[in-house]
Amino acid sequence: MIRERKAPGRARPGRERTGAKPRPRRAGRPAAAAGAVLSREGIIQAALDAFATSGYEAMSIRELTRCLGVSHNLVHHYFRSKAQLWRACIDWSFGTLARQLAAADDLAPGPDTDVLARLRERFRLFITLTARYPANGLVITREGALGGPRFDYIFDNYVVPALGPARELLAAGQAAGIIRPDLDLRTIFFLLTDGGSGPYTSRAFAQRLDPGDPQRPEAIAAHAELVADVLIRGIMATK
């Protein structure tokens, strides 16, 4: 008895017949690489730049993962929300800067301490560190203009502790008569942060004024020394 052959039919869904050509992928956004892996710190660094350039509200985690070429789920594996990611960025960037500044504050001002020398070194170090973390200046400028819980978090956790040693040094210098009595902390703070750090937070602007790259190591060192000298001479009491 001869068995009747079945007519060829369609392959089952999800299976392709041998020799069949793969279907071309539809045009659109490329899929995230299946094996793409990025560390927690790598995500934080990229997200910090995104928050700095776009602002908190406009920053998109989906767009961040697209630019990084990683799965959207990878970010959520480390950070459950955009707010949690933002706080991790602040703790990493502002925290690193605060720890390095604290290394210059080991000695308390006393009768044998050169207050002006310590202030100058603090100014110089702040400019040098800001050049390494320019996103900090962009973030705090934006949040400082808006106010609110995010600014409160930065101010209470990182600005206030950092200002403590500087406040003490200024008070000691004024008490000794070597720093002008009309100098207030707010004035020196904004001269240092908005003025001295300007070439790094407004890099395109800086390069219109001088085509040299302000973030070259030698340029950073020279700028930090100059800013520190100008500020110290400006705050010294006149006799």
Structure overview:
By secondary structure, the chain is an all-alpha fold. It folds into two domains: 40-82, Arc Repressor Mutant, subunit A; 90-235, Orthogonal Bundle (Tetracycline Repressor, domain 2), CATH 1.10.357. The protein is 63% helix and 0% strand. It is built from eleven helices and no strands. The chain has helices at residues 40-54, 61-68, 72-78, 82-102, 115-132, 134-146, 149-175, 185-196, 198-201, 203-209, 217-235. Helix 1 packs across helix 6 and helix 4 (82-102) runs parallel beside helix 7. It is elongated, with a radius of gyration of 27 Å. Mean pLDDT is 84; it is low at 1-5, 7-18 and 24-35.
Topology at a glance:
Blueprint lengths: L39 H15 L6 H8 L3 H7 L3 H21 L12 H18 L1 H13 L2 H27 L9 H12 L1 H4 L1 H7 L7 H19 L4
Helix pairs in contact: 1-4, 1-6, 4-7, 5-7, 5-11, 8-11
